[in-house]
Amino acid sequence: MVRPVDRCRVCGRDDWLDVLSFGETLLAGDFQDPADPPGDRYPLDVAVCRECRLMSLRHVVSPEKLFEHYLYVSSDSGLITGHSRRLVEHSVAGLGLAEGDLVVELGSNVGAQLAMFQEAGLRTVGVDPARNLAAAANERGVETLPEYFTTAAAVRVAERHGPARMVLGRQCFAHIDDVHEVLDGATRLLTADGVLAIEVPYLVELLANNQFDTIFHEHLSYFSLGTLHRLFGGHGLRVFDVWTAPVHGGSIVVFATPEASPRPTRPVVGEMLADERARGLTGEDVYRRFAARVERVRAEIGDLVRGLVAGGATVAGYGAPAKGSALLQACGLGRAEVAFCTDTTSLKQGRLLPGSRIPVCSPEEGTARRPDYFLLLAWNYAEEIIRKERRFLEDGGRFIVPIPEPRIVSAQTVTA
Ligand code: TYD
Ligand code: ZN
User: Fold this and answer.
1) Structural domain span for residue 346
2) Pocket test for ligand 1, best of 27, 216, 340, 344 (most atoms within 8 A of CB)
3) Does 68 score more than 90 pLDDT?
4) What is its EC number (predicted)?
């Protein structure tokens, strides 16, 4: 079920700088049915490889446990769909993908992104090990193999559909232990000028904005461009472009192509690599300072919420993202402090947060119950949510935004 990481999954060395330990915690995305027994705990420690600077968990929980019945459904929020649309537009107008070209997506979830590629005239195949989600994608007409993206799966896709002009992995690459197998599969699938586009939460944002709650068992790796550049290079893939995107707290989309491909490398790649060195990502201090800030912020969030509750206020969680359950566990907050959490995902409603067993309800029910404070667990959508919940604020309700530093948002602070 759980195995310690010795050798780095990128470079193979076994020389780690320990950064943070959260002790043994419950799987953040394991929303329980009220009849379920409490889940199991697994160690949650994070370290940085002294050779290639991969930030990684020190333990890997088996993927069957994490992903085969997955409750995370890609969001239809404006932020996410805007980004998905931009990727499709860029693939056609910027990268020259033409009608009939094949796009293969790993971790394709319910197929929302691939459906957009289909609308643009491209052929698509999804690969996702979550059987419940793959079934939903197939039902909407997005062909999806309920599998891990292994070399064998990639070869089978190529045999059946021909080579891919694009292999896309959005917000799943950091969940994968054997990254070499995925890259091997991708290189076998790609055309000579094909594009591998990998989107990951950006390590620089994690460090700069104290996003400690994004550290949980699903997220095995926390990538800089430097580490990905080295990893892809080892598979004959040249990074030729990189985007920053405001999704999931700040992400990068790294575009790579076979070494001999005619696609020119854009200057932004070298600039971002230099910026990472200038920020000290290749040193050790930056990680030690991050760890110290996280210890402080964890304590401050817990103290703030406990103080409000002790003063008679009611607090509920806004959103029940996996990182929200990681945050509550890391801050020692439970049902005594947080009465319930709201979430738009119907699969989560009626279930309980792991460990704390805080119940999840719909946003409509949650706002009707009118807590004094909403702890904004889905802080990566802060702008959109605060705009949507204007009424709650105008009625005197407040948000607690936990990240990067806990702060309280009221109607006055929004207009100010
Ligand atoms: P997300 O941050 O995308 O992922 P993770 O689980 O990896 O941390 O999850 C956001 C959650 O917040 C998701 O369960 C949907 C929910 N949500 C709302 O309840 N209301 C909203 O307005 C939005 C944008 C999201
Ligand atoms: Zn390494």
Assistant:
1) 286-415
2) 344
3) no
4) 2.1.1.-
